[in-house]
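Batch job 17 of 40 flagged for manual review because the log was empty.
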Amino acid sequence: MSSASGKTALLVGTRKGGFVFGANADRSAWKPGPLLFKGWKVMHMVQDPRNGRLFSALSSDVFGPSLHTSDDGGESWQQTATAPAFTRPSASGRPVGNPDEARAPETAVQEPEKVNQIWHIRPGLERQPGVIFAGIEPAALFRSDDNGQTWEVNAAFYDHPHRPEWFPGAGGLCLHSILLDPTNPQRMYLGISTGGCYRTDDGGQSWQPRNRNTRADFLPNTLPEYGQCLHKMALHPSRPERLYQQNHCGVYRSDNAGEFWQDIGEGRLPSRFGFPIAVHPHDPETIFIALEESDQYR
């Protein structure tokens, strides 16, 4: 991000708080600012490029999730009036609570789900002033049209017929990636663990899985239509038809908006397993990943 002084800054979230790191002119040295939100899990910190506002998605085992904003580069923070919350059960029929608990069918979805974490905050496009998107756990997409003060769940995705078949990964059933096509405001991509990649071409009124040729080695059918454990997705705004993803089962690239994914790591990388992936800010041909030995040794 760019700080209020025009210098480069780095936003860092941890399980016990967050930091804003400042850099010198050539970025050869970094200095952390004071610890923010001490004792809270900082799930995501992001800057809105449209106005410079910072967002921090927090979580506490005691107090639950909350959302905070800063308009002075992180010097002071204000909690938003509300955070994403469900007001009704999902029409998909997904059970509420622990799926291992025995429940009578007629009472399985008679109460709203609980938002456990806010995993991802995505400011809208330049042409969408005030719009903020949030991905939460259990997987659902929320939208705010007033800079995060009020929220509404995307009904088509929350009620998607595939939703009962998605299952939690190590971080729960999380919606962790939200990608916006800067050339087409009607197109958006979502990444779910464990569910895979979904795309809308009509502004969120309908969603289709886009997982062709991505593996799910932990399932009987290793190339399913959906159900992959996608860990992170990225795109570069200058080439929005090209997508990258770090999957539980490999590193992939799509050159046609997710219609087909090519394995770009097989035989080239020492491991298939990792969590983050990022595109170079000035070069859509360059990506960065951080691999781990395997899903057994993280």
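Reviewer: the log was empty due to a logging misconfiguration, but the result itself is present. Residues 99-104 have pLDDT under 50 and may be disordered. Unflagging and moving on to job 18.
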